[in-house]
Amino acid sequence: MHKDLTVLKAIIDADYKRHMRKFEKLEKGKPIVFLGDSMIAYFPLSRLGLTNKVYNQGIPGDTTTGVLNRLEHVIRLEPKQVLIQIGLNDYMFTEHNSTDIYNQILKIHHILKSSIKDVDILIVNMTPINISHFKDQIFVKYRNLDDTDPLNELLKQDKDLKIIDLNKPIIDENHELNIELTKDGIHLNEKGYEIYYKLLEKRLVQ
Predict the structure, then answer these.
(1) In this structure, what DSSP letter does residue 138 have?
(2) How far is residue 25's CA from residue 61's CA, in Å, rounded to a whole number?
(3) Which of 90, 99, 203, 96 is CA-nearest to residue 157?
(4) 48 in Cβ contact with 197 (< 8 Å)
(5) pTM of the full predicted structure?
(6) Do 89 and 187 touch, CB atoms closer than 8 A?
(7) Which of 102, 206, 117, 110 is nearest to 156 (CA)?
(8) 183 secondary structure, DSSP code
(9) Does pLDDT of 171 surpass 70?
(10) What pLDDT does 190 receive?
(11) Alpha-carbon distance 107 to 3, whole Å?
C-alpha cells in the first residue's frame, strides 16, 4: 500500500473506533438506520429534518468488511428500515474486486434480513468520481472512472435487492461526478445531497 494511503488508513482506523464507541451508546427508538461510509456519515440529517427518525451509522473511509464487523450495533436497534451505501473504499483499502464487493454486500443484506424481523433494506449503488478537476485528491487519484460499473451492474441485476440508483442522476456526459454536485471530486455538496434525498424521500418508512 502506498505510504500516503498507509497514513490515511491509520487515521481512518482510529476514527472507526471512535464511531464504534458512539454507536455502542445508541438506544432503540428511531425507525431507520443509515449504514455505510462517508457518503452516509456526511448526510445532512438535520437540514433535511431527519434527525428524529434516522440513526446515522456512517463512518468515513469504511469498507464492506468494516460494516460486516459492526452489524450488531444495527441489529440491536431493531429498525424498520436500513439504508446501505458501502463499497467504494474497498477499491482503495482492500484487494476486493467488484464481484467480491458485491458478495460482501449480499452478506450484509442477508445478516440484517435474517436478524431483524420484517426489516426493509435499501441499497444505494456506487457513485462516480471526478478526476478532471480533482486528480490530486487522495480519494480520487487511486481510483478509476470505470471501477464501479461492474459492481453497479451486479447490483442492478439482482432482483432480490432494492436498489436506489444515485449514480445516474449525478453522473455527467464524461462519465464523471458532475462538478456542480461535489466539493472534492467524490463527496456530494449541498445540491448533491438534495438530489440524494429526493430519491429517498418517498421510500423512507414513517
Answers:
(1) H
(2) 21
(3) 99
(4) yes
(5) 0.94
(6) no
(7) 102
(8) S
(9) yes
(10) 97
(11) 31
The three three-digit cell numbers of residue 192, written as one number: 448533491
Checking DSSP bridges between strand 54-58 and strand 81-85, what pairing results, if any?
unpaired
Alpha-carbon gap, residue 83 to 32, rounded angstroms: 8
What per-residue confidence (pLDDT) applies to 106?
A: 98
CA–CA separation, 119 vs 104, rounded Å? 19
**What would the 3-class secondary structure string for the chain be?**
CCHHHHHHHHHHHHHHHHHHHHHHCCCCCCCEEEEECHHHHCCCCCCCCCCCCEEEEECCCCCHHHHHCCCHHHHCCCCCEEEEECCCCHHHHCCCCHHHHHHHHHHHHHHHHHHCCCCEEEEECCCCCCHHHHCCCHHHHCCCCCCCHHHHHHHHHCCCCCEECCHHHHECCCCCECHHHECCCCCECHHHHHHHHHHHHHHCCC
Q: Three-state SS for 140?
A: helix
Residue type present at position 7: V
What is the rounded distance in angstroms from the CA atom of residue 203 to the CA atom of residue 192?
18
C-alpha cell at 14: 482510529
On the question of pLDDT at 3 being above 80, the answer is: no
Q: How confident is the model at residue 2 (pLDDT cuts 50, 70, 90)?
A: low
Separation in Å, CA 52 to CA 3, 32, 58, 82: 41, 10, 17, 15
User: Hey, what's the cell of 188?
Assistant: 456530494
Residue type, position 178, single letter: N
Phi, psi of 49 (to 5 degrees): 70, 35
